[in-house]
Amino acid sequence: MPRTPGSARLSRNEQLPRSVWALLGAGAGLAAASAVAASSSALAAHFARKIVTPERVKAEDQEILAVQGSGTERRVILKSSPDTIVDGEYSLFFAGGTGHVRLGPLEDYTPGDGTVTRRVLAEYSGDLSQAVRGKWSGVVFSSPADLGCAYEEIEFPTELGPAPAWFVPGDAGEHPSTWAIMVHGRGATRSETLRSLIPARRLGLTSLIISYRNDGDAPATADGRYGLGMTEWQDVEDAIAYALAHGAQDVVLFGWSMGGAISLAAADRSSLRQYIRALVLDAPVVDWVDVLAHQAQVNRIPKGIGRFGQFLLAHRWGRRITGLAAPLDFRAMDWVTRAVELRTPTLILHSADDDFVPFGPSALLAGRNPEMVTLETFRKARHTKEWNVDPERWEVAIASWLAQTLAPRPGPGGPMPSSVGTSAGAQGRD
């Protein structure tokens, strides 16, 4: 029976050597593997860029169901979430961040309906009655005036240009020559640190609440990227220089989240580090590798891809992908490994359930260097909301620890050097 053209081709194909079929199969496998590799590399690149790229537009993912009443009786009904069901005072930002209201403690929570009711304590800006979505925040004050503080809008010089700051004079207390310098975290602004004013004023400290490069207020760098503390500490050094030029003899750095990493870097690398008497750190990043691994897990990014994202941030050839002007030195920012090198008295306030910057490294740092590090553990505060959950305990813990730390020392005067010497990351500013 004659063969059709099609059956002839099939017959010839059936007669192809097995080695050819193996090569064809390998080629298909390689193509699939290449596609997977390209996809993984793209995800790692996206993860790396997201870590160091400032977010100018904040997601408003909190649903506002209703606004009732007016004046002191005004209340807002919100869709319940892991954040809104935690008691304490918080803020709601809306209308692209132009609206800001302060909300009181939890008044009603109905799990069945999935709703939360809170009193409106203050309306700083915007029209809440027109808002349908907002951003939940632990930032409860919009300026020092909300705390009854007299203050000035000033600028301090940096290598990139003048950076805005709030200057809040202290009173004639026991520490008239000690200034508090407040350093906010990643994606935040100066207002995040205003809660620190309460214990600082209790001790009579003059406060400088600063901005720093790429935060949207201070001048930006050419690359426009966060250095995760590796570059921002230089602006803290400039703030210290400003304080010293205006009457300070020493300073206390208050660092929040990434501001903790920045403060630690300043105490490590600054040529003025001998003037840093103490660090007060709220939910600080003390090991970026741990934080990035945690964020990869939270965002369901495979471990290998997360590690490759870290690799891109830490190596020179990754700069074209991340946009960084220089690679990041994660070893220098690993204060768990470098625990014994920290020689600045440090108070850490951190919630055990922090869902953004894990608590574990803070506990390890305190355990490995109990001489210098004191840890105050909070619960249910999530990230940087320790004050919101228990303001009295938070304020007393800081004020009492600082009072003891700043107490006059016996012997010759002058600030005690607090640098970490010639450690892995210690070096002066270029």
From TrEMBL:
It comes from the Bacteria. GO terms for molecular function: hydrolase activity. SUPFAM superfamilies: alpha/beta-Hydrolases (SSF53474). Residues 407-430 are annotated as: Disordered. Keywords: Hydrolase. Residues 419-430 have a biased composition (Polar residues). Residues 181-366 form the AB hydrolase-1 domain. The keyword Magnesium does not apply. It holds the Pfam family Abhydrolase_6. PANTHER family: ALPHA/BETA-HYDROLASE, ALPHA_BETA HYDROLASE FOLD-1 DOMAIN-CONTAINING PROTEIN. This is Alpha/beta fold hydrolase. It comes from Sinomonas terricola. The lineage of its organism: Bacteria, Bacillati, Actinomycetota, Actinomycetes, Micrococcales.
